[in-house]
Write a structure and sequence with these properties.
The protein has one domain. Helix 1 packs across helix 13, helix 3 packs across helix 9 and helix 14 packs across helix 15. By secondary structure, the protein is mainly alpha-helical. It is globular and about 65 Å long. The protein contains 15 helices and no strands. The relative contact order is 0.16. The two termini are about 25 Å apart.
Length: about 350
């Protein structure tokens, strides 16, 4: 492990890269950067989050959940980690929706979608209770938050499993395998869409739990070539997976992500990929990755409004922004990513760290 907080820095860097890829995949502008297969399929990086989350949660909590009080403390800490930023952004989106409503009333300009047509009050209350991934088929409000809704209740499932298995290696492995098998076949007969978000989370999260247990039980050392190979396979798999509403290679990606994480953990020290992932900027991206992920929908919406009403850049049916100029579209995307990183750094410092400090008192 690379520090006393049990954070493995090269894996945190991968989380930062994944968050940025998901964010870019949602920035809909007529640029070749956006309009390519790899970026289009970058929704799969969310499944990497889930696998990594399963590993990290097992690493930090598997041996510490042994009674109802420890389960309560675990869930309370996860709540304080996820909910504050989610709630703040939900209120911001609610204010934006009212601004949109008043704009429609006074200007008769509806824009891309009528206010409160997608972001309904029903969906709002599900967002408040973090149940939107469990009971809603469509994303709304701050749409990336579907995944933290899925994760929060997967944490609870993990905690209950630890209570019943008493963190026994064999029982944990069997229980995780059963959950993975059930969720795999459920996804195989539906899709890898956000409507199956909770099932996707269970499928990937418990693969991460298995990675932790196998790595702890069998601490082997392998050639760095294995991590290079699985990293390449992961990139190619994302590129050729296809859309989330169909099942194909995409359903295998959590398995590939698991092998990638395991190969990095088991790799000998002379690993160039791990050394690359230890670059300070990538570690910084990993630190602010939650804010990148949670803020990007708000930042993209704000930028699209500015571009529309200040610079006259309109949208099409498929794209939020159309400039008909490849260089200009690329420049807008680049500047927007910089704005997102700056905003995420501020969010990390003034929101995440403040509430993370409260977790230490539990």
């Amino acid at each position: 492990m690379e520090n006393s907080n049990k954070k493995i820095l090269y894996l945190e860097s991968l989380r930062g890269i994944a968050a940025l890829m998901v964010a870019i995949s949602h920035f809909r502008i007529d640029s070749h950067i956006f309009q390519n297969q790899f970026i289009g399929n970058s929704y799969l990086w969310v499944d990497f989050f889930f696998v990594l989350s399963g590993f990290v949660i097992a690493l930090n909590y598997q041996l510490r959940i042994n009674n109802l009080q420890s389960l309560y403390l675990f869930q309370a800490k996860r709540f304080l980690r996820l909910y504050p930023l989610h709630f703040i952004l939900l209120i911001i989106f609610l204010c934006l929706e009212y601004v949109e409503l008043y704009k429609e009333i006074y200007t008769n300009d509806i824009g891309i979608a009528q206010s409160f047509s997608i972001n309904t009050s029903f969906a709002f209350w599900h967002n408040i209770f973090l149940t939107h991934s469990l009971f809603l088929d469509n994303v709304s409000w701050n749409y990336p938050s579907w995944s933290i809704s899925a994760e929060f209740y997967t944490y609870l499932l993990f905690g209950l499993m630890m209570l019943f298995t008493r963190s026994n290696f064999r029982f944990t492995l069997y229980s995780s395998s059963i959950l993975i098998a059930i969720s795999f076949f459920m996804l195989l007969n539906t899709s890898m869409d956000t409507s199956q978000g909770f099932i996707r989370c269970i499928y990937s999260f418990f693969m991460g739990v298995i990675v932790f247990n196998l790595n702890s039980k069998f601490p082997i050392k392998v050639s760095p070539l294995f991590s290079y190979l699985f990293f390449l396979i992961a990139l190619l798999g994302i590129n050729f997976s296809g859309p989330s509403d169909a099942v194909g290679i995409n359903i295998l990606m959590p398995i590939i992500f698991s092998f990638l994480i395991f190969s990095l953990l088991s790799s000998k020290p002379n690993n160039k990929l791990k050394n690359f992932l230890r670059l300070k900027f990538l570690i910084f991206l990993g630190a602010i990755s939650y804010s990148i992920y949670m803020l990007h929908a708000f930042i993209w919406r704000l930028i699209s409004v500015i571009l529309r009403y200040v610079f006259g850049i309109e949208s099409s049916d498929n794209l939020a922004m159309v400039t008909n100029n490849e260089f200009l579209s690329g420049a807008i995307l680049f500047i927007s990513v910089i704005v997102l990183i700056i905003a995420s750094n501020l969010s990390y410092k003034y929101i995440e760290l403040k509430f993370n400090a409260l977790r230490k008192h539990l």
